[in-house]
């Protein structure tokens, strides 16, 4: 039935019944886990220092502060991770077309 509790995808304003009060903070937990994993891979020395970038904060991608800067940081990290996995990947430039950059990243990931 339409509007039945717990049904997904029928109305955009309904929250699924299985989401608890901590669901709003899940993104922060994911970001902290991501940062821990990047640190294990020595991203500060290998990725950020080469591009003269600042280290990420614990909630860098969890809060939309500067979408252009965050997108470029994401692309820089994605390119570095792809290269680290053994696939040569050209570092995107800050003013490259975002659709083309994402298309290239996705294409490279599909080839794995």
Automatic annotation (TrEMBL):
Main location: other
PANTHER family assigned to the protein according to its UniProt record, in alphabetical order: IFT57/HIPPI, INTRAFLAGELLAR TRANSPORT PROTEIN 57 HOMOLOG
One cellular component (GO) term of this entry: Golgi apparatus
Location relative to the cell: Cell projection, Cilium
Native organism: Sylvia atricapilla
GO biological process: intraciliary transport; non-motile cilium assembly
Stated name of the protein: Intraflagellar transport protein 57 homolog
Superkingdom in the source lineage: Eukaryota
Similarity comment: Belongs to the IFT57 family.
Taxon lineage: Eukaryota, Metazoa, Chordata, Craniata, Vertebrata
Keyword entries, A-Z: Cell projection, Cilium
Pfam families referenced in this protein's UniProt entry, alphabetically: IFT57
InterPro entries: Intra-flagellar_transport_57 (IPR019530)
């Amino acid at each position: 039935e339409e509007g039945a509790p717990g049904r997904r995808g029928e109305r955009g304003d309904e929250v699924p019944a299985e989401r608890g009060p901590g669901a709003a903070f899940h993104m922060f937990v994911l970001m902290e886990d991501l940062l821990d994993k990047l640190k294990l891979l020595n991203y500060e020395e290998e990725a950020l220092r080469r591009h003269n970038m600042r280290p990420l904060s614990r909630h860098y991608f969890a809060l939309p502060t500067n979408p252009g800067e965050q997108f470029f940081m994401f692309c820089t990290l994605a390119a570095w991770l792809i290269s680290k996995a053994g696939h040569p990947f050209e570092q995107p430039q800050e003013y490259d077309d975002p659709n083309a950059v994402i298309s290239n990243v996705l294409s490279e990931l599909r080839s794995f």
